[in-house]
Amino acid sequence: MSTLSTFPTSDSAASTGATPAVTTPTITRLNQGSPGWILLKLSDKTAARPMAPPAFVLLALAYSLTSAYDPSPLQDFCVAINDIKTGIFVNGKFCKDPKLATPDDFFFKGLNIPGNTNNLVGSNVTTVNVEQIPGLNTLGISMVRIDYAPNGGQNAPHTHPRATEILFVQEGTLYVGFVTSNQNNNTFFSKILHPGDVFVFPIGLIHFQVNIGKTDAVAFAALGSQNPGVITIANTVFGSNPPINPDVLARAFQLDVKVVKDLQKKF
C-alpha cells in the first residue's frame, strides 16, 4: 500500500473548497403563494369581468407544471418497446400481491459481519438494496456497509448516478471528499471524519473515502434510491468493454498513448 504522507492529518488541513459553491437555482411552482395571485396580476378590467380564455390557459399550464413529471430511472437505461410480450424490465420491479408479503420481504441479516478488505483497493462494500430486501421496491432508499483496511484502504473515486449518499463513521479515521461539476469550477470539498461523524455526498458527484488511520475503519451509508448504481471512475474509463480508443484517453488525460494502454491492461 502506498504511503499516506500526502494526505491531511487533521481537519484543519482538509480542503473545504477554494471558492463557495454556486447556489443552484430552485425551480418553484408557477402558482406558489395565495390562490388569488394570478388574478391579482391581471388588469383591473380583466379582474372585473369573467376571466378571459388566455387566463384559463395560464392556470391550466400552472397546474400541469406542478403535477407532470417523468419517473426517476432505476437502472442505467430502459429502452421503450411496443410489444409487451418481449418486454422484460420495468422501471423498478414488479410488485408482489400485498396479501402475500411476509416479514422476510423487509429484512436483511449480516451488516454486523466485516467485509474482506484483502484486495487491491483495500476495501469492501456490503450492499443492501432492493436485490437484498425486496420490500425496498418503490421506497427510494438503500444502504451499505463499507470496511477499510488500515493505512490507505479506500473506496476509490466513484459516483452514484441515481442517489445522494449520507455516510456515518462507526470506527476509524477517514479522509473523504467530493468534487463539484464543471459548472461550479470542479471545486473540491473534503473532511477528516472520526467515529460519530457524518458527511454527505451529493447525487452524481465524484467522491471517495480513504482510511488514514492505523486500524480498520467501518462506515455505514444510506442512499436515496432503491438502486443507486455505482460508477467507479478508473474501472469505467480504463476498463470499459470494449475498450475506449487509447488515442481518445491519451488526449483527454494528456498522457502518452503507451501509458494509456498500460493502464487499460490493469483493468
From TrEMBL:
Cystine pairs annotated here are: C78-C95
Tell me which SUPFAM superfamilies the record gives.
RmlC-like cupins
- Cellular localisation: Secreted, Extracellular space, Apoplast
User: Does the record carry Secreted as a key word?
Assistant: yes
Keywords, sorted A to Z: Apoplast, Disulfide bond, Glycoprotein, Manganese, Metal-binding, Secreted, Signal
Q: What is its main location?
A: secreted
Record's GO cellular component terms: apoplast
Query: Binding residues for oxalate, per the UniProt record?
Result: N155, H160, E165
InterPro entries attached here? Answer: Cupin_1, Germin, Germin_Mn-BS, RmlC-like_jellyroll, RmlC_Cupin_sf
Pfam hit, one:
Cupin_1
- Residues covered by region (Disordered): 1-26
GO molecular function list: manganese ion binding
The superkingdom of the source organism is: Eukaryota
- The positions annotated for binding Mn(2+) are H158, H160, E165, H207
Cross-referenced CDD domains? cupin_OxOx (cd02241)
Keyword Magnesium listed? The answer is no
Q: Where is the Cupin type-1 domain?
A: 109-261
Provide the function of this protein: May play a role in plant defense. Probably has no oxalate oxidase activity even if the active site is conserved.
Instruction: Please report which protein family the annotation says this sequence is part of.
Output: Belongs to the germin family.
This protein is called Germin-like protein
